[in-house]
Amino acid sequence: MSEDATLGEFVESESEDDIGKKEDWTIEKVKNHTKLISGAHVKSDNVNNDSAGEPYLTGPDDFEGLGFRVTKYTDSPTKYCEPGDTLVTVKGSGCGKTALSDQRACISRQLKALRPESSINFLHLYYSMKSKENFLQTLSEGSAIPGLSNSHLTTLDIPVPQLSEQRKIATVLYTIDQAIEKTEEVLEQTHTVKKALMQNVFHGRHKDFGEYEQTPVGEIPSDWSVVTIGDVVQTAQYGISESLSEEGQYPIFRMNNIENGYVIDEPLKYIDLDNEEFEKYRVKEGDILFNRTNSLELVGKTGIYELEGDHVFASYLVRLQTNNKTTPYYLNYYMNSSEAQNRMMDFATKGVSQANINANSIQQVKIPLPSLEEQKEIAERIRSIDLQIETNQQYKSQLQRHRRGLMQDLLSGTVRTTDTNIEVPDEIVQHG
Q1: Domain co-membership, 264 together with 145
Q2: What positions does the domain Type I restriction modification DNA specificity occupy (predicted)?
Q3: Is the N or the C terminus of the chain less surrounded, counting Cβ atoms within 10 Å?
Q4: Residues 123, 129, 132, CA angle at the centre, nearest 5°?
């Protein structure tokens, strides 16, 4: 294999003769190869969001990708992590979650830092701890407030092959993580493009329509009209209000089956129905499901059905079926726009923990309505971006599955790197 071996070439090069040959490995305690730094509390008066002082990490909410993002700062720092340290969450619901430090930062008491000694590569340590996240979370659940002690971390067993192999293992996994981060950047950029597009197309700003006029839904081309959702739907129907089970005749959609403007088929509950009831609640292609009851942040979630199979829908959802004045995709995309979501909130009945928008109220929401031809063009433009998002999301999921599998194989010695020429970047060599 060449010095510039690709990840695929590396995987294909492994032979059965390599599997399980790990006599040169040792399983050792974390404390033998690290220094433990416990975070400390910083008073809220000494914390700011104005970039004044040192970066301050408070917990796993700051973790992002391999590392972390800085949102808080402090002028009274106490305990620090350094570049190359592995951060571990030791208090609260995120116990066990890890991140890799790429800069000096003050850490709160919710975090501990493992600083690698010269005997262990910093990325090998990080991935070894990353592979233990679920185990550490289980360890932390023995008390009312989840927590990990110093000994939970320092007595943890990790694999310690020769440094040269540690670096190769780290390189393989780091290469995948870099691909994941690049895909996430593409996804973020595509979401930004979609948001900007949706702010423009529903007001006719994506091309020159000539004259524009102010309306209750903002400025739109003068040959567009303003109607209510009730004007463009022929059905606004509540779902089934019956008990559900883990098994049954028909899968049924609930509040959590709406995601990013589409109806999804996981997770599912089931229900048994006679033929008449099934036909009454059967979801059909192009149906729009609207979440009428949920938290204030989630009420109003809307998705279009384009799946195959026999499905019905539950009572916290309202089914909208369009008439010949609009297309289902146009209405669905508009209802998912930020301005439509904000307008829906004007009709929400707000409770202590939940909000409700009934079927009559949703039909009163005003929408801009171009010609059917223009509606189809708008929907196609948004749909093309959604397909890009879907493709990249699937690729990201594939990379994440691949990383999980390789992490298990490489850190267990099932797959070895000793006989492969993997080029190790300087950034991986410099910390062990």
Answers
A1: no
A2: 23-184, 221-400
A3: N
A4: 145
User: What is the domain extent for residue 338?
Assistant: 225-369
CA contacts within 13 A on the Cβ side of 206: 18
- Based on the fold, state whether residues 65 and 137 are members of the same structural domain: yes
For residue 267, say if its preceding peptide bond is cis, omega within 30 degrees of 0: yes
Buried b (16+ CB within 10 A) or exposed e, 223-258: ebeeeebeebbeebebbbeeeeeeeeebbbbbbebb
SS3 percent helix, strand, coil of the chain, rounded to 5, is 35, 25, 40
Q: Are residues 236 and 347 in the same domain?
A: yes
Residue recorded with tokens 């050792």? 28
Report CA-CA distances (Å) from 72 to 29, 39, 102, 106. Answer: 33, 15, 16, 10
Cβ atoms of 283 and 313 closer than 8 Å? yes
Q: Say which residues have a Cβ less than 8 Å from residue 370's Cβ, sequence separation at least 6.
A: 204, 221, 223, 224, 378
Q: On the CB side of 104, how many CA atoms lie within 13 Å of its CA? A: 7
Per-residue pLDDT at 143 exceeds 80: no
Residue 1: C-alpha distances to residues 6, 165, 389 (Å): 9, 16, 35
DSSP H helices, 121-244, are: 122-130, 133-140, 150-154, 163-201, 229-232
Task: With H, G, I as helix, E, B as strand and everything else as coil, classify residue 312.
Answer: strand
Cβ–Cβ under 8 Å, residues 292 and 299: yes
| pLDDT value at residue 22 | 61
With contact defined as beta carbons under 8 Å apart, do 97 and 63 qualify? yes
State how far the Cα of 286 lies from the Cα of 320, in Å rounded to an integer: 9
Mean pLDDT of 320-340: 97
Count of the separate structural domains present in the chain:
2
Same structural domain for residues 175 and 251?
no
DSSP class of residue 250 equals: E
In degrees, rounded to 5, the angle at the alpha carbon of residue 107 between the alpha carbons of residues 101 and 109 is 130
pLDDT of residue 431: 62
% of the chain at pLDDT higher than 90 = 79
**Of 334, 338, 332, the residue nearest 320 (C-alpha):** 332
Q: Based on the fold, state whether residues 276 and 348 are members of the same structural domain.
A: yes
Mean per-residue pLDDT for 13-29? Answer: 60
* Location of structure tokens 């990201």: 396
